[in-house]
Design a protein that fits this description.
Shape: globular
Structural class: alpha/beta
Number of helices: 9
Number of strands: 10
Radius of gyration: 17 Å
Distance between the termini: 13 Å
CATH superfamily: Copper homeostasis (CutC) domain
CATH class: Alpha Beta
Helix content: 25-40%
Number of domains: 1
Strand order of the largest sheet: 1-2-3-4-5-6-7-8
CATH architecture: Alpha-Beta Barrel
Order of helices and strands: EHEHEHEHEHEHEHEEHEH
């Protein structure tokens, strides 16, 4: 299963053209992704593959105020009303442990539907001091999967933890490996036992515009989802032997 994170209409089209299995819909991937605008959500709802909405109200940490938590709940409702397949959420306490109470509130919103949303716990999990303990909390809360790099900035460096998480989760929850996954890193990542992977498949598009940089409209060459990169990763993933 290949999930591709995208931040614009071209990214949606590229993910579909490259035969991705699922889309994570975001804005602002440069800061790890934020909640996308309603117009992009509406466009993504027309996609022929499942779309999961990232509900993250701002950049920075994952310790939210009550007002910010209300925004995430509203985003979850928007995803359901648009007909999307799932949401991607996460919240932490000040010590980086999962904020189980806040997450439970959001999950109640996601599950209180004629068609309950699929639930992914995002990489707030990677900041947890004890991932094996937090795995059990995520399972108790009812998450379907955890997007994780194994507690390292890149999944290649978190393979030992990914292996342990896959074994501990069993068939109770899916471990979705992400961060730095491409054709080179995919085979050793799959050696951990994961069977779902998450990638941006973005490539630089043309030269950076000096005037746009001077005005602060961009910081360098624009990155865009590359359908050829999606296709190459999807093909490589599907040639791997089944678990």
């Amino acid at each position: 299963m290949l999930e591709v994170c995208v931040e614009d209409v071209a990214g949606i089209e590229a993910a579909i053209a490259g035969s991705a299995d699922r889309i994570e819909l975001c804005a602002a991937l440069a800061v790890g992704g934020l909640t996308p605008p309603a117009s992009l959500i509406a466009a993504a709802a027309q996609a022929p593959i499942p779309v999961h909405l990232l509900a993250r109200p701002r950049d920075g940490n994952f310790t939210y105020t009550a007002a910010e938590a209300a925004l995430v709940a509203s985003d979850i409702r928007a995803a359901a009303e648009a007909g999307l397949a799932g949401v991607v959420i996460g919240a932490s306490r000040a010590d980086h442990r999962l904020d189980a109470a806040m997450l439970a509130g959001w999950i109640a919103v996601a599950r209180d539907r004629d068609r309950p949303l699929s639930l992914t716990l995002h990489r707030a999990f990677d900041l947890c001091p004890d991932p094996m303990t937090e795995l059990e909390i995520a399972i108790e809360l009812g998450f379907d999967r955890i997007l994780t790099s194994g507690g390292a900035p890149k999944a290649m460096d978190g393979r030992e933890t990914l292996t342990a998480l896959v074994r501990a989760a069993g068939d109770r929850l899916t471990i979705l490996a992400g961060s730095g996954i491409d054709e080179t890193t995919l085979p050793p990542i799959l050696d951990t036992g994961v069977r779902e992977v998450h990638a941006s498949c973005r490539r630089p598009q043309g030269m950076a515009d000096a005037q746009e940089i001077a005005f602060g409209f961009q910081t360098g060459p624009r990155l865009a989802t590359d359908p050829a990169a999606v296709s190459a990763l999807a093909k490589l993933l599907r040639t791997q032997p089944s678990a």
